[in-house]
Amino acid sequence: MGTTDPILRVSVVSTGQVQIRPDHLASTWRPTLWWLLASRRWTGPRPINAYVIEHRDGLVLFDAEAPTCQAEQSSGQR
Q: Distance between CA 25 and CA 38 in Å, rounded?
């Protein structure tokens, strides 16, 4: 990142861990409702990360783990 780059630094912040069904990781031929109700397996712990971007105009917290359908949209700065 050069001196004219508006991004000064990017840091990773771990907010915890989660275990999910293996079918969440990759699509399978099984219908979603079926594997949600019938699956008895879980993955190992997987990290939940967020990213802090140090921009020349201020800090930005970016949570890459939330699906877009669940993300809240904000029109103002915080």
A: 16
